[in-house]
Amino acid sequence: MTSFQNTPAFAAGLDAQDPLRLFRQRFHIPPGPSGQESIYLCGNSLGLQPKAARAAVEQEFQDWERLGVEGHFHGTSPWMHYHETLTDGSARLVGARPVEVVVMNNLTTNLHLLLISFYRPTATRYKVLMEGGAFPSDQYALESQVKLHGYAPDDAIVELVPRPGEHTLRTEDIEARIQELGDSLATIILGGVNYYTGQAFDMAAITRAGHAVGAMVGFDLAHAAGNLELYLHDWDVDFACWCTYKYLNSGPGGTSGVYVHERFANCPDLPRLAGWWGHDPSDRFQMKKGFRPMPGAAGWQLSNAQIFPMAIHRAALAIVDEAGGMAALRRKSEQLTAYLEFVIGDLHLPASTLEIITPADPAARGCQLSVLVHRQGRELFDFLASQGIVADWREPNVIRLAPVPLYNSFADVQQVGAALASWAAGAR
Ligand SMILES: *Cc1c(COP(=O)(O)O)cnc(C)c1O
Fold first, then answer.
1. Cys bridge to 359: 69, 221, 230, 364, which one at CB 3.0-4.6 A?
2. Which protein residues touch ligand 1 with a CB less than 6 Å away?
3. Peptide bond into 19 cis (omega under 30)
4. Among 423, 290, 405, which residue's Cα sits nearest to residue 354?
5. What fold, for 57-320?
6. Of 33-37, 198-202, 315-319, where does mean pLDDT reach its minimum?
7. What pTM value is reported for the model?
């Protein structure tokens, strides 16, 4: 571990050595209240706009203007096959084979589509295991899926909660719970990284434990994709989905990614909700009866591709590859988040004032640190905003700070530390 110092000069030195430092210039950094660039630590909520996004969308406007319907076949990237241009980059991103991924729809929609296939309750095996306090959309999705099958959410949904006095889950407790549920457990669905605490789960261990009792195991990677190195295929994960507008910088409401393990690639009988874009392309335009799914994740597609959000995603994914992929991003990210942890620790505030609830183990977290502020949290959040620091506030009392390796600097982090120190001096 580097021994850090909490000074602007030390931060500038780390920035000078950072192989990714020039990638910041590839993004639009929104101005803060003073008109200077803000310190944007909110990429976990909405990633910043890649400068290349506008030209990518403009290209599609031009093709549409010039070609009309012919853009499907004769566009610069023909729309018929546009989604396929995202497959290899998405596969690298999540550690999957190309046949295992597809980009389509939005996250909650995809979660439902996957649950239709991978939550197949029976009279004895109908339980779902998830995080207590999961992101609300995931809670609602599960609640409605359980009801769809005629079960009561209170009975069918089992929530994992930390031990008393702890903020995050222990892997051994998750494994024990899975064993205890045994053959009553149909499906496990957890976030890859919990949106509130920033805890990254041991997806390989959880998948192993789930499979040992015969359950399907899936992850909502909203906060993990573009944040962690993922090896979904090697971890043997059954299914997963993610949004692209957080760490993947692909624009508000942007498109979403889906992963389905290769072992389901040729299972046409697996129940699913079908649409023409998931149908065998060789006779998709024959407009005949009888759905025959494409092999792999592509067979879960419903509709023809949303070209505009996909154009942004394509530009954004290209930046990840250019930066050296997730391994390179993660190398910087671990150091950047450790530096944030260090400058917060350097305040020497008692845990009764301000406490980081994200795990200290770098393997159990991504970019984000969640800071529990016991008193006047909202005031602190507003103070940071007045200093041009964009963080995010989660009720009842957590400030989430997420320095991201593509566009945040060590200087950003040091300045956040300085702002916190001036707040603490006033608050004491
Ligand atoms: C951001 C997020 C969502 C948002 O869902 P959308 O369908 O993209 O609106 C859902 N689940 C989790 C865990 C998230 O972090």
1. 364
2. 106-108, 135, 137-138, 191, 195, 220, 222-223, 243
3. no
4. 423
5. Aspartate Aminotransferase; domain 2 (3.40.640)
6. 33-37
7. 0.97
Q: Given ligand 1 and candidates 137, 142, 193, 258, which is best to mutate, with the most ligand atoms within 8 Å of its CB?
A: 137
Query: Do 8-44+325-427 and 57-320 agree at the fold level?
Result: no
Averaged over 341-363, what is the pLDDT? 94
- Report domain extents, the chain: 8-44+325-427, 57-320
Residue bearing tokens 């930390």:
162
In Å, how far are 4, 168, 383 from 345, measured between CA atoms?
Answer: 11, 19, 19
Nearest CA to ligand 1 atom 10: 137
CATH of span 8-44+325-427:
3.90.1150.10
Instruction: Report the nearest atom of ligand 1 relative to the CA of 220.
Output: 13
Say if residue 283's pLDDT is above 90.
no
Mean pLDDT of 149-178: 98
CA of 361 to the centre of ligand 1 (A): 25
The Cα 367–Cα 247 span in angstroms is: 9
